[in-house]
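Appendix C reproduces, verbatim, an entry submitted by the partner laboratory led by Prof. M.T., so that reviewers can inspect both the input and the predicted structure.
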Amino acid sequence: MSPSFPGPRRAPARGGRAFAATWWGQAWVTALEGSTLDAGRLSRGRTYARKGMVGTAAVAPGQVKAAVQGTQPRPYRSSVHLPVLTDAQWDTLLDTIAARAGHLAALLDGEMPAELVDDARHAGVPLLPQPTELDPDCSCPDWGYPCKHAAALCYAIAATIDADPFVLFALRGRGRDDVLAELRARRSTGRTVDTPHAPAGVHAASAYAAWAALAEHDARRPGLPDLPEPSAHAAALPVPPPSNSGLTSTDLERLMTDASVRATRLLSGDTTTLHLPQHHDALRIAANNPGPEWFHHLIQNTGAKPTAFARLTRAWRHGGPTGITVAEQPHSPGPSAMTAARTALTTALTEMTDAPGRLMAWRNRLTLTDHGIQLRLGPDARWYPYLQENDGEWSPAAPADPDPVAALTAVWQQRQ
């Protein structure tokens, strides 16, 4: 008998991300939205899901189905199909889980380990769905692929996947009980994968002290090597982290690469990121595109609102720490700078459009209210362009420029 799940709670926010709070739930939403170019039907599907029009969902190997209320009195029968794994793929996946005790502990705690998904994918086992794998079906007459009812089901089930990653296993062919029984059998037969012990290594402080002692007593001491160019590729760990640490190789490799790049810049004299508060450092990491799972973890661990965090991430990309200051802290610059900029912008707008609209000034901000454009003068004497979004909030839209007219031009076409 297929397990049934009550319809998830309504999502209060807008957009696809409102339905998934975890990176693996968002992977499901991303697969749905990547499977079609029909934004209209996806939008209507989100509306149906928010209004609670998706009934009790039944998950079975290779499919999830539910009744979805449409505009007619009788609900439609909607389903979404996903290919199940072969027996050989299941053996590989179960071996991957059994290799680390932390994997199973995380799953039982309602977490999907990113390293487990990465290791399985490298071994040819697609646990998370791909856009080409989702196959929607519905009894309604709509020819859309997916129709709005199947899209609503996909969005609604994302919250269930959030809460219980074993739902993904069930969709791939085996439910929680089957997976746990297979893992118990592997433990009883000793079928696990051993990992090598990590080398002891040398503490960084001890290594530096040894070099400093040599520098003091030997004029022929070796100097510091030439600094390499920072690499965007993650360095490989010599051995995986301990199985009970809760850490993943992928996470540690990303942190190693980030630390290496920052150290190189610090040695070169760039100290702009040396004393960042925690939430600014989280924005710095997010701005380097670490992937959706890291992005969601950063939001959760900082307690930020997703939309505000995304806007500040864009502010970092366009201006680094100064871009964050401009986004968060209005200030009052000298009146001469604002007057000169306002005069230059008024002249430029007269040439750019027949309806320039009002140009309003407040502290370090010049706002074109009729066009939803704002320029902010930063403490670095550069102008940061902003655009007004549908929710009325201002979002960084382009890199800063010392010339206010150039900053305006950079975003003008986006509003036309």
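The two ends are 56 Å apart (CA to CA). Additional entries are available on request from the coordinating office.
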